[in-house]
Amino acid sequence: MKFPWFKRIGIFFVPSTVPGWIILLSGIVFAVYSFLDIDGRSHSVSDTLMNFVFMLLIIGAVYSLIAFLTSRNHK
Amino acid sequence: MEKENFEKKLSDMTKPEIPDLKHEDLLAGAIINAKDKSIVGWWWLSAPAFVILMLMMKSVFMSGTTLISNIHEMESTQKYMSIIFFLISPLILIIINAFTIKRIHFLSGSPKLVNFLGTVWYNVLIIILSLLILIIYLF
Predict the structure, then answer these.
(1) Which of B27, B28, B55, B116 could form a disulfide with B70 if both were Cys (CB 3.0 to 4.6 A apart)?
(2) Contact B50 A68 (CB under 8 A)
(3) Tens-digit pLDDT profile for residues B64-79
(4) In which residue ranges of chain B is pLDDT below 50?
C-alpha cells in the first residue's frame, strides 16, 4: 500500500491519495447524517448546535487519528 | 609494482565519509512526528474541553448547580463516553507526549531548557491541559 495518505497543513490533515479522500468523504457524509439525526430529535437550534458540534469534534478526532497513522512513511 | 599497488590501495583507503548525520535525520523526524502527534492531541482534547465549557455555562445559567455536580450527572447518564473522553484519552495523551518529549530531549543531546521548551511547548501544553481535565473529572 502506498503511504502517506495525508499531509498535514496546520491543524488539518489534507488527503493526498484516493484512500485519503474516501476517508474524508466518509467523515463528511457521517457528519451530515449526524446533523440530520440530531436535528430530528432536538427541540431548539441551540440544542442541535451543541450536540452537533460535540459530534463534529469526535468525528474530527477520529479522522485526525486515522490520518496521523496513515500519514507516516512506512519504510 | 606490487609496492606501488599497495601504496595506491593505502591512499584509496580512507575513512568512510557520512555526508549526512543520521541522528540529525532522526531528530528532525522526531520533531515533525511530535508536532503531528500534538495536532491529534488537540483534536482529542477539544471534545472534553467543549463539554466542560458547556457544563460551565449550564452551571452559570442554572442556579443550584456547579461544574462538578454537572460532570457527575453526565457521568451517571453517559458512563462510557465520559470515561473515554475524561479519563482514558487524557491519560494516553499524557503518556504519549511525555515519551515524545523524552525522546526529543535524548536525541537533541540535552539542550538548554529555554531552547528545548521552544521546540516542545505544544506537547507540554497538551500534558498540562490533559492534567487539568483529569483533575476536574476526578475531584
Answers:
(1) B55
(2) no
(3) 888 888 888 888 888 8
(4) none
